[in-house]
Amino acid sequence: MHAIARFLARNKGFITFMLCMLVFRSAVADWNVVPTGSMQPTIKIGDRILVDKLAYDVRLPLTHVSLVHLADPQRGDIVVLDSHAANERLVKRVIGLPGDEVAMRGNVLFINGRPASYAASSYVGIRDDLRDPAHYDIERYDIMHHAVRLSDFRPSPASNFGPVKVPRGRYLLLGDDRDNSMDSRYFGYFPRNEIVGRARYVVASLDPANHYLPRSHRFGMPLD
Description:
Structural class: mainly beta
Number of strands: 18
CATH topology: Umud Fragment, subunit A
Shape: globular
Oligomer: single chain
Strand content: 35-45%
Largest sheet: 9 strands, antiparallel
């Protein structure tokens, strides 16, 4: 006991700092490494993203318990969630809000019976295009607009689904790489209380396909 007390006394500053960092990352802001391409081209493999954990709730640190409700996720938000169905942390985009009817036909998104519009775009530096050629469109629906990646030769079986109605208290989330994303088409609707924050910026980015060299042009890039 005396040894433990001496250790705590000698290291109280460091221990206090680590506890403050733990609380900060749990309840205020965090950073996550993105190891997969399901949100390409918006988020690239190897991006380190800043997660705003005060975007929707003030939570009890180290829990999912909401102490103060601040806002609800909006269509188009990129959210981070601890998914029970997937048994892992996910980064996806909010597409369907509670009460929405959502469908997809040949990767064309329909919300409440109205199709999104698409305009051709282009992106470079997506290494998955070497083994799986794809094209890029800007998907628009009301104020939501973002790029999506669509495979030229290997469309997902889930490129057609619905129509489905999003239940109360749940959200329909999709990846921007529509043919390479495990999302609501596979796991179903995600509960509101599993969403822990909103992805705001790319803090840093390391390219795993190029000896983990930094992609300095992505540092500080906002996520839309």
